[in-house]
Design goal:
The structure holds two protein chains of two kinds. By secondary structure, chain A is an all-alpha fold. Chain A has helices at 2-13, 16-22, 27-54, 62-66, 69-89, 91-95, 98-120, 122-126, 136-157. Chain A has nine helices and no strands. The two termini of chain A are 14 Å apart. Chain B is elongated and about 55 Å long. The termini of chain B are close together. In chain B, 39% of the residues are buried. The chains are: A mainly alpha, B mainly alpha. Chains A and B meet through helix 3, helix 4 and helix 9 of A and helix 3 and helix 7 of B.
Amino acid sequence: MVRFQMWLVTMFAGVKPIARLMHTAWGWPLAESLHFIGLSLLVGTVGLFDLRLLGLGQRIPIAAMHRLIPWGLAGFAINAVSGIAFLLAEPDQYVYNPSFHVKVLLIAAAGMNALTFYLTTYRKVTVNGAPATAPPAAKAMAAVSLSLWIGVIIAGRLLTFYRPFPCQPPDPGFLATCIPGFHANWK
Amino acid sequence: MFRWIESSALSVWTRESTSLIAYPAILSAHAIGMALAAGINAAIALRLLGAASEIPAAEMRRYAGVAWIGFAINAVSGTLLLIAYPTKALTNPVFYLKLSLIAVGLAVFVAATRRLEQWTSAAQTWVGIALLASWGGAIVAGRLLAYTYRRLMAG
């Protein structure tokens, strides 16, 4: 895994124009602002749909509420683009950051959870004449979705508190949470 | 005044404690509260601007309570952040811009969740635009606080 991390960092560091743009006076603050707007859009639509599945606002048909989801996907797209810009600009600050590892895992889990929802109960809860109350399985997935996205926000906010430093001996193990390559013994 | 706040036990703890439940938890709470407050405002705005028109617009007020919870989380966490670094915020004009945008956003939000049925569609469009501009602006201003402050502390 450490080899893969080092390969990733080398790859990302190769994309120079984005890094140059991000290191201008406005690059980083602008990308951060977009990242926060995108996350609000995502939580405000996907999170609202989750709350609807859990039973809040029963008079709104679930299918109608689902029409907001494309805006959540737009928020996710904004965050994917701004997030990749951070990654390309300071690859080692993310690839070796344990909080980033957790964040990526939580995003993947949220994606799997959404996929499971669409493959199992989506049709049942949005079909014409579907009952106002979602079945327990859909409620469970909504609760998981809300928890995971809140977890993603926390892991994102904690990134700066887990900044990786150059590795000290012994070697960093399976998954590096420090920046390898500085210590002669290891490299 | 700033020195007095900065030397208070609560300020020192928020700023200097190495515990994850101090500054990191407060920042996380502030981001979650933002997502709830600004996010639900954005959803209401999108509905007013014509998105998801199958949703009865007046029913969106069922979610106002959650937006208020988000706002309450941010009022508390924001106050703690202010107590941690009063000089940093209060000597920065952008901080006052952020507070003004939140005040406008809240006023429009309260208006948007009341008597929506009686409004013309043109009025609803303007309310939607005002919600997006004020909450989006508050987020940008908040983010810029980390880049525009002149003095971190008085002491």
